[in-house]
Every structure is written in C-alpha cells, then in structure tokens.
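Revision sheet: structure tokens.
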Amino acid sequence: MMMTAARQRPMAVPPLKTATVTVGLDVGGTKTEVLLVDEDRRPLAQTQCPTDTTSPEGVMSSIVTVVNTALEQAGIAPSRIGAIGIGVPGLVRPQDGTVQLAANLNLREYALAEAVTAVFPAPVILENDARLATIGAYQYLRARQPIQHMAYLSIGTGIAAGVVLDGRLWRGTHGMAGEIGHIVVEPDGAMCACGQRGCLETIASGPAVAGMAARLMRPNPVNNLTADAVYQATESGDSVAQTIIQRVSYYLSHTIQWLIMSYDVEKVVLGGGVAQSGPAFLDPILLELSRMRAESHLAETMLGADKIMLLPQGFNAGVWGAITLAQKGD
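Predicted:
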C-alpha cells in the first residue's frame, strides 16, 4: 500500500496593528493550534505544533511554545493579550479552569487555566474542545444561511459531537453532551483510553485508522502512517485502504444517523483533523447514507445528502469557538 505523510499547510497570517489581542487555543492529542485575532476578529497569526502528551508539564510546554511562536509571527508582546480561550478534549470544569479528565492528554484534575495565566497574565476561559468547535462551526454556518438546529461531529485524534438547539449550545448535566466517541459500538472490540472496549473512537478516529492500516500492512509497515494517507490511498484504488475506510465510514454514517434522529437537526457539520482529507473522507460516508436511504422510507426523509456539510479545508472551528468564548468572557 503506497502512502505518504500528510501535507503541511502554511499557518502564518500577516500581522495587523491592534491594542489588544485574543488568543484561541485548540489543544488536541496530536497537535496544539493557536489563533490570534484583533478586537475586530481579524486574524493576526495562526500556527500549530505537536502536543507533548507525556505529562501535564509537556502539555503546558506545547501551549507556551505555540502561543509564543504566534506572538512572534505577529510582532506582538505577551502583555497585549486581552483574553485566552482554550479547548481541550474531555471533562472540564469551566468555572475554575480545571481539566477533570482528558485521557488523550494524560490530564486529571489539572488546573490548566491557572497554569496558563501564570505564564501569560490574562483571563483564561477553559471549555471542552467539541463544545468550542460547535460554537465555531455554528457561527461559520449561520453567516451563510439561517439555521437554528445543528450538530457538529469532530473526527480527529478523538471523536466528539456538539449540538445547537434553538440557536443555543446544549451542554448537558455534566457539560459532556456529545461525547459520542465513547459510545460502545463493538462490545468485544479494542480497548479505549477511557477504559471501555469497542468505543467508536477505537474504530473511526485518526489513530485508529492509521493503526488498522499498519496492522494490515505487516510485515511491510510504512513509517509515520497517518489517517490522511490511508484516505488518500483509497483514491488510487488501494484495496487495503478501501476495506478500512468502508468499515470506518459505516460507523460514521450511523453516528450521523444517531445525531439526526436524536435531535432532528437541520445540518450535521463534519470537522476535525481527519475530515481535512476532503472528498476521500466525505464520499464514502455519503455513499453509505445513500444506501441507508434506499432501504428505509424514514431514512429517505431524514438522511438527505443536503443535511451533511464538510467544513472547508484549513478552517479550525475549535480555535474560532475559543476566540468567541474568550471575547465574551464566559
């Protein structure tokens, strides 16, 4: 199977002069991305770096590195930061800025907001990354069409969803509404970082896709294999990649069905690092949804292809959601 590493895109944006800046951070299990904007939400700099998930100190080091890099790109002193919004995968306590549990980051009861404020003296707003990405995706969509009910499905290092109903983000009792990646779909499946077996994340996340490909390619593995490489290999007719992605797309299609049937949303927006694979990612999902519509009158009514939308390549809904929350201050 011929695969290559994922392409890197340039992240820097030409700087603009401003009194204060807002920082939006999307801290993921694979990479940490930052966006700097001025008071009018005009981008000043955007960059990313790998996330060091070996320890809380490693995560903090990644945050400090990426923020300092963006500040340097924009020619802005840290003292001009007005507010910082941070999204992390897992259970968070926004009221005191604590990460209660983020399995993909190896964080438990970690006072992340306090640690960041100690380095960059500015108010820090912490929230679950999927909730922030949902806010960012909703703003993107609402700027283009009137919409009140939307679901966002993020597929990256992990899998999570967020839901907007009547124009408001649905958080749930514990602020964990949408942790769909930890729904068990194969009870005897692979062990998940959350402690369960057969979670959706163990099948359809980026690391799961790359891991399946690596196992099937033995004894001739490819170094630094990525989910994007697997998806792109399907376009060239690679049978191993096609088998993997057919299975993954089956589960993601049913996840979309669950979201639509549960919340009767107008749109399901797909995002996250894996979704950046574009048509190679989206087309197999649409094909599976088409098959589902052909088998059921209810599915034909509810699962129209016009309900599915892929965020444009390079648009990180998470950092934009973090910017919004930081500027609101709650």
